[in-house]
Amino acid sequence: xxxxxxxxxxxxxxxxxxxxxxxxxxxxxxxxxxxxxxxxxxxxxxxxxxxxxxxxxxxxxxxxxxxxxxxxxxxxxxxxxxxxxxxxxxxxxxxxxxxxxxxxxxxxxxxxxxxxxxxxxxxxxxxxxxxxxxxxxxxxxxxxxxxxxxxxxxxxxxxxxxxxxxxxxxxxxxxxxxxxxxxxxxxxxxxxxxxxxxxxxxxxxxxxxxxxxxxxxxxxxxxxxxxxx
Length: 229
What we know:
The chain folds into 2 domains: 1-127, no CATH class; 128-229, no CATH class. The chain has 8 helices and 2 strands. The chain has helices at residues 5-20, 22-38, 62-86, 97-122, 129-148, 162-166, 168-195, 197-228; strands spanning 45-50, 56-61. The chain has a two-stranded antiparallel ribbon with strand order 1-2. It starts with a helix and ends with a helix.
């Protein structure tokens, strides 16, 4: 039995998220099962990092190669499940519940995709890791950009700057302005993934820099203008 109203509210909020999160939970469980299946076929040293030229420059153990990303995915999911429950602005999550679920699922999908790429490369498939990872990052950025304007004022998700957190109007206008920039940055990354090489990194990181710096400056100037008035 639940002891008080707060516990009941907490229980219902978790249940609501779990029901909506079944695709993400299924992906996490599938990756854990896949880890057990592929473990015997992985080499002792599993590639874990590639440079911008697509060359392996770091390795991990077989155990970490099989279960590292699935466990990371599990941790991130649990964190995102609990954050809305402890956020001082927790009531605002209802205003962008579907958006939050999409963002949660996209992060899980992205990391699962990275896991598949690493496993395929480790067991000997000729995979263009650098291009596929860049493509995945770029698509994730596009999705985030498309939903950014729907993210409501909170302390854990979105553009969290002192002046956006201090003023809900600044928060909303900043996110609406930043969304298209993130989408453009994502498409620049897609073009880079197709081109490959150092040009790809320039396009992706150049676009990301603009999409981060410009909204930060815009939000500060907007905050100053509102407060000066």
